[in-house]
Specification:
By secondary structure, the protein is of the alpha/beta class. It folds into 2 domains: 3-58, 2-Layer Sandwich (Double Stranded RNA Binding Domain), CATH 3.30.160; 75-157, Arc Repressor Mutant, subunit A, CATH 1.10.10.10. Helices cover 32% and strands 16% of the residues. It is built from 5 helices and 6 strands, in the order E-E-E-E-H-H-E-H-H-E-H. It has helices spanning 45-58, 75-85, 95-105, 113-121, 148-157, and strands spanning 3-10, 13-19, 24-29, 39-41, 93-94, 134-135. The strands form 2 sheets. The protein has a 4-stranded mixed β-sheet with strand order 3-2-1-4, covered by helices on one side. A two-stranded parallel ribbon has the order 5-6. Helix 3 (95-105) crosses helix 4 (113-121). The radius of gyration is 16 Å and the shape is globular.
Length: 170
């Protein structure tokens, strides 16, 4: 299936926005950009909506809409990503808190925060599906596919004071 893409410049570097023409499928960080025969550099309505969302976000506005999205993942991953979308702008939650919600929805006693971390790390639409708003239980800024530096910039963009958070040892 042919996918459309464009490169979008942002404060966290170039992003590759990928659409199937109906839905936003992925946002990739600069170091993850892919170019293959099935990808065409072309804007479509989904990409235009995504650019508008990102423009608003990076200008300090709270976007009031979501572009049409259909990330490819397992049912478990999609459940986790749906929980991420519910995290309000400039708010944070932990992997453990999401694990409790997913366990409750599935009528099981408990779920591992590590399992949630695995699904969060596979999020194909970072920023819009705000995995950067998930932190470790000990207030550690950890686990961001684009790198902790990008996670910090995104949180600062939202006005979150990260000065009292721990960063993982390098």
């Amino acid at each position: 299936m042919t996918r459309n893409y464009i490169l979008y410049s942002s404060i966290i570097g170039d992003l590759q926005i990928i659409s199937d023409g109906k839905y936003l499928k992925e946002i990739r960080f600069a170091e993850e950009h892919i170019f293959c025969l099935d990808y065409v550099e072309r804007e479509d309505d989904v990409i235009i909506a995504t650019k508008k969302w990102l423009d608003d976000y990076f200008h300090g506005l709270v976007p009031e809409f979501l572009p049409p999205m259909k990330p490819d993942g397992t049912p478990f991953q999609n459940d986790v990503w749906q929980e991420l979308i519910k995290i309000p702008y400039a708010n944070l939650t932990t992997y453990g808190d999401i694990a409790k919600v997913i366990a409750s929805k599935n009528n099981i006693l408990s779920m591992s925060a590590q399992a949630i971390g695995g699904a969060v790390g596979k999020n194909p639409i970072p920023i819009i599906i705000p995995c950067h708003r998930v932190i470790g239980k000990n207030r550690t800024l950890t686990g961001y596919r684009g790198g902790i530096d990008k996670k910090e910039l995104l949180l600062k963009c939202e006005g979150v004071d990260i000065s009292h958070f721990k960063t993982p040892k390098k």
